[in-house]
Every structure is written in C-alpha cells, then in structure tokens.
Amino acid sequence: MKLDLKIQPLSSWITAKAQPLLIAGPCSAETEDQLVATAHLLAATGKVTALRAGIWKPRTRPGEFEGIGSIGLEWLKRAKAETGLPTAVEVATAKHVEEALKAGVDILWVGARSTANPFTVQEIADALKGSDVPVMVKNPVNPDISLWIGALERINNAGITKLAAIHRGFSSYEKTAFRNEPMWDLAINLKTHAPELPIICDPSHISGNRELIPYVSQKALDMDMQGLMIESHIDPSVAWTDAKQQVTPSALSELIDRLTLRQPEVVNTQVKDALAELRNKIDKIDDLVIQKLAERMKIVEQIGNYKKDNGITILQVNRWDEILQKRSNYGKALNLHADFTEKLLELIHSESIRKQTEIMNAGQGEAPVQEQLTHS
Ligand SMILES: C=C(O[C@@H]1C=C(C(=O)O)C=C[C@H]1O)C(=O)O
C-alpha cells in the first residue's frame, strides 16, 4: 500500500553542505557558551548542514534535567546568526511549536515519545497549521509502523509538505548492544510505503554509545537513508544528558570522513548489465521457491485431511523438531545463517498450521483476522 503523502523533495528545503546531509549539535542546550561554541566548531568542519539542540527534554523519570527551556531559543538564534547554520529543535506541545516558530527555528522535529501518542501529534499538527516549516518525525519508541505513518499523515494533513522521517531505533526489553534496536526492516518498510519520503537516521540514539555510531551511520547510508542526525558536544565528558553517545565536533568530522558514500542508481552500463543478468537468475530462483512452497502446501493439505479423518492433532512436535534440526543443519552446511533458516522454517510451519486449522475446522466458524493474516 502506497501512502498518499504530499511531499516536497528534501533538496527543495535543505541544502546539504556536504555529503551525507548532516544535522548535528548537542543533545541538550546547557549554557549559551556551550551551545554557541559547539556550533562554531561544527560549522568550521564544513560538513554540518543544520544545528540541532534539545531545549525541552522529555525525560523518562522526574528529577532529571528537563531542558533549559525557552531561553535556549535565544541561544539558538545567536548560534545561527554567528555561524549561518539553520537550527532544529524538538517540539512536544502546541506551546513549543508556537515559541519555536516565533523564534525563527528552521526545522522542528517530533520526538519518539510524542510520535507514540496520537493526541500529542494532533496537538502539534494543529499548532503547525498555516506554517510551512520543515518537520521531521522520529519513529515511535515501540516498533509500530502504523503509529509512525499515522504521525507523518497527521503532520502532512496539517499542510506541512517539507516532511521527513527520522529513524532512531526502538525500545527493547532485552539488553542488546544497541540502546534502541535499529530494526532496519521497519525503516525499509516505511520506504516501500512512501518512497518519496526522506528518511534521516539518528545513529546516536540507536547506538547509545560513541563506539557504535560509525557502524550504524555506515549501515544507514547503505540503507539509502538521506542523511544523519548525530549528537555532538564540545566536551561530551561533562554533558548534562546522553554523555556516552555524544562526540566532539572534531571526532564527528573524522567519523564522517571515514564513511563510504554509495549511489542508489547504477550508471555504468557494464555494471547495469551484470546486475540485470544476476537479477534475472534471482527472478527464476524466486519463482521456483514459490512453486515449491505451493507444492509443499498441497501436501500439507493432504496431511490435514488424513489427520481430520483419523482424529490426529495438527501439531506434531517431534516431527516439527526433527525438521527444524535437520533443515537448520542442512542450511548451515550450505552457508545459510542458522537464524535465517530457523525463521524461514517457522514461517512455513505456522502457515502449515493455519492451513490445517482451516481444513480441520471447516464449518466451525472463521478464524479471527489476526490468525488469518499474521504469523506469530
Ligand atoms: C504437516 C504436518 O503438520 C505440522 C506441520 C508440519 C510441517 O509443515 O512440516 C510438521 C509438523 C506438524 O507440526 C505433519 O504432521 O507432518
């Protein structure tokens, strides 16, 4: 399903100073000196397109630094006047929007916690009506693409056409190497729903620590994202918020230098032909895979009918376990990643269960929509 968003191309409202497009600045504006000094160092790299700074900070627990507030808008104005960098801030209420617009902030972004709440997004959207300020919408904290899309639609419906999404990763209960799980599939999914929508990656919030930022940044570029938002502080060791994930402006500059930029379009005809030939092979293999899956499902149907006639349960755990073990080992021997083979088999098995449930319980009522459409 393609989304019906009315969007102006990124290049019509933001001019990248260099490639990749880079929005950088401290997690929080702390003092006027800290913000302005950081802005000067960032501008001097020649790589930064816009200056970001949080001035209203949604903190998970009370008692933490909640942002410097409206006074920060004055500091941003000064930073912009002295460096020429356009400015970007997070807004979470109608009042934030009004104040930021009045102060001439160039780009607003909606944070992950706000995106998760349609009331908040609608309040922000209503406050934006009549303005044509660019707005970037971070993904919600939970991995729910509909919430992300819904927020983008609400802002777009308010008349904002200078629109982009920010991929900042998703909260996870499990402790992993990332502060927020990237779940790249969700960003790719958004791209397929709205190919014209620019997506900026926020490696700082995905990583949660400086060390991972280069890896995440490179991966984001290879996922054809249109830019990066990276937190940068003049002295991260004394940062009031997110100290571990901020980098100095000079470290940021080096990090950007080490990234490899690749093009989404293939221009070289020789390369184009070689790719076309390989893709042709893939097309044939995919057709075979689908044919074989359909054949397998026909056999599953026969098994389902036998089971129905003979009063045998659908799930046969020993057989399933045997399949899982044998195929995983076979896959490993053929250089397939074990996780991949397992996930694929699970998907096939759950479809097989669904099919047999349909056969066994014909005439006993329809399965709920969730069971028909999803494979848990
Ligand atoms: C098809 C069967 O039913 C289920 C589905 C399986 C499959 O699709 O391979 C395997 C075991 C059962 O849980 C079967 O019993 O063989």
Automatic annotation (TrEMBL):
Stored InterPro entries: Aldolase_TIM, Chorismate_II_sf, Class-I_DAHP_synthase, CM_dom_sf, CM_II_prokaryot, DAHP1/KDSA
Chorismate mutase domain location: 269-360
Keyword annotations from UniProtKB, A to Z: Transferase
Alphabetical list of Pfam families matching this protein: CM_2, DAHP_synth_1
Any Gene Ontology biological process: chorismate metabolic process
Gene3D superfamilies linked: Aldolase class I, Chorismate mutase
Enzyme class: isomerase
GO molecular function, one term: transferase activity
EC number: 5.4.99.5
Residues annotated as transmembrane: none
Name of protein: chorismate mutase
Native organism: Mucilaginibacter aquatilis
